[in-house]
Design brief:
Helices cover about 25% and strands about 30% of the residues. It is of the alpha+beta class and about 160 residues long. A 4-stranded antiparallel β-sheet has the order 3-4-6-5. It has a 4-stranded antiparallel β-sheet with strand order 7-8-10-9, with no helix packed on it. Helix 1 (about 25-30) packs across helix 2 (about 40-45) and helix 3 (about 75-85) runs antiparallel to helix 4 (about 90-110). The longest helix has 19 residues, at about 90-110. The radius of gyration is 22 Å and the shape is globular.
C-alpha cells in the first residue's frame, strides 16, 4: 500500500507496512472505536486472542514518543474482528470503513472481470467439486435445473437455487 496514513473520522492512523500490507496500532484503533481508555481494547483482544491468527495481529518494535517500544498491531482483517468484538456506538461504522479499504486493496491487486452476459445483476454462480468428485454444485439465480436433462436435487434459498448435477 502506498499511503502513509489512513483516516477514520478524526482519527489518523500511522500505517505500519508489513509485507506490503497496511497494519494499524492498537492504541489508534482504540481511539477510532471510541474507547476513552486505550488499554480497554487490549483487554478485548486478550479475552478473544484465540480467534486471531498470525496474519491478523503481531507485536513489533515501533518508534513511539517514549522511544522504541513493543506495540501490538493488527491487519485490516484483525481490525475488522476487533470491531466485531467491540461494543461501542461507532464500531459498526468502523467495520464498514475497514471493509471499504479491504475492497479497495483487493480491487487494486485483483481487478474484477466483467460479469458474464448470462448473469443478471446481483446474481452469481459458484461451482465446486463434491467430496468424491461426483459432480459440481452450482448456486445460481437464473438457471433452470430441469434444462440439463439430468436428475437433480435442489433447494430454494431466497432467489437462488442450489442443485447438484
Amino acid at each position: 500500500m502506498n499511503a502513509t496514513a489512513l483516516v477514520f473520522q478524526s482519527t489518523a492512523f500511522d500505517i505500519v507496512d508489513r509485507n506490503g500490507q497496511p497494519w494499524l496500532r492498537v492504541q489508534q484503533i482504540a481511539v477510532a472505536l471510541g474507547y476513552k481508555r486505550r488499554d480497554v481494547l487490549q483487554q478485548v483482544y486478550a479475552a478473544h486472542a484465540d480467534e486471531f491468527t498470525e496474519s491478523m495481529t503481531a507485536v513489533v518494535k515501533l518508534p513511539t514518543a517514549g522511544g522504541e517500544q513493543e506495540t501490538r498491531i493488527f491487519s485490516l482483517r484483525g481490525c475488522h474482528l476487533l470491531a466485531m468484538l467491540s461494543r461501542t456506538k461507532i464500531a459498526k461504522e468502523f467495520r464498514r470503513w475497514v471493509l471499504d479499504i479491504l475492497d479497495k486493496e483487493i480491487g487494486a491487486t485483483n481487478p474484477r472481470t466483467e460479469p458474464e452476459a448470462a448473469d443478471a445483476p446481483g446474481q452469481f454462480t459458484l461451482s465446486r467439486t463434491s467430496r468424491n468428485q461426483r459432480g459440481n454444485a452450482r448456486i445460481s439465480g437464473n438457471k433452470n435445473p430441469r434444462s440439463c436433462g439430468q436428475k437433480q436435487t435442489f433447494h430454494r434459498f431466497t432467489s437462488a437455487q442450489i442443485f447438484l448435477h
